[in-house]
Amino acid sequence: MNSPTARRTALVTGASSGIGAAVAAELVRRGYRVYGTSRKPESVADPVPGVEYLSLDLADGASVEACAGAVGDVDVLVNNAGESQSGPFEELPADAVERLFQVNVFGAVRLTQLLLPGMRARRYGRVVMVGSMLASFPLAYRSSYVASKAALKGFADALRREVSPYGVGVATVEPGSVNTGISERRTQYLGDGSPYTDEYHTMLDALNANEAGGISAGTVARTVVRAVEADPPRPFYAVGSNAPVVFALRRLFPRSAVLKLVARRHGLR
């Protein structure tokens, strides 16, 4: 393909399913050479045609280093892989929270650090962090997940100015509710006889219903690719869950009122 992007190489983490697979497919369609990651590339159930799969376990520092070495020069990095976690704050096991931050934040940060020097040297690069609208609209019983996605956005916001003089653009994409089947893969922590049981399940039922009726992974992927191909990309993109309306409300109303609206949308009073 003789397109301007034919010479670009992209790495998409968590490309075995969901948003990552959709992003990888969209980039292939647009002429990129695409590497996708999975913890077990040989076991990817429905590989995306045209994507070369690499092994990556973001919880393992050696695996992150090996992936960066295997992929070589990369023009585009989409940090998409992550874990979804929920549970009452006081009942979240410390090791589970640490694992979540290793996967959702520290692994992505280290991978970005390893690939940035090449982008800077070539005077071109794009780094996209796939976050969550929950980072902007926190929800009870999702504290660890909310915090991890807010941390990822914080890194991106501070990094942007550092690398922009070298032609490297950094953006965060925050999807709202997305129908990817993540409800079945979410890790949950709730103690036996927990005083939070009833309210937690109320929140979870609403969350699952919202995700079942959410936007497609393809819709998110098109937003990610729009960020990749913008020159320069905007710092922030939100998609799904009536993003234009809810972010307008966030600007117009007190923070406390917005948080109450988020809670009520999930059955909490």
UniProtKB/TrEMBL annotation:
The cellular component terms of Gene Ontology attached to this UniProt record, alphabetical and capped at eight, are: membrane
**Which parts of the sequence belong to the Ketoreductase domain?**
8-176
| Keyword Oxidoreductase belongs to the record | yes
> What SMART domains does the entry give?
PKS_KR (SM00822)
GO MF: oxidoreductase activity
Which keywords annotate this record?
Answer: Oxidoreductase
Q: Which Gene3D superfamilies match?
A: NAD(P)-binding Rossmann-like Domain
- Kindly indicate whether the keyword Oxidoreductase belongs to this entry: yes
InterPro entries for the chain: KR_dom, NAD(P)-bd_dom_sf, Sc_DH/Rdtase_CS, SDR_fam
PANTHER family per UniProt: DEHYDROGENASE/REDUCTASE SDR FAMILY MEMBER 7B, DEHYDROGENASE_REDUCTASE SDR FAMILY MEMBER 7B
For this chain, the family text in UniProt reads:
Belongs to the short-chain dehydrogenases/reductases (SDR) family.
UniProt-recorded name of the protein: Short-chain dehydrogenase/reductase
Q: Tell me which species this is from.
A: Nocardiopsis sinuspersici
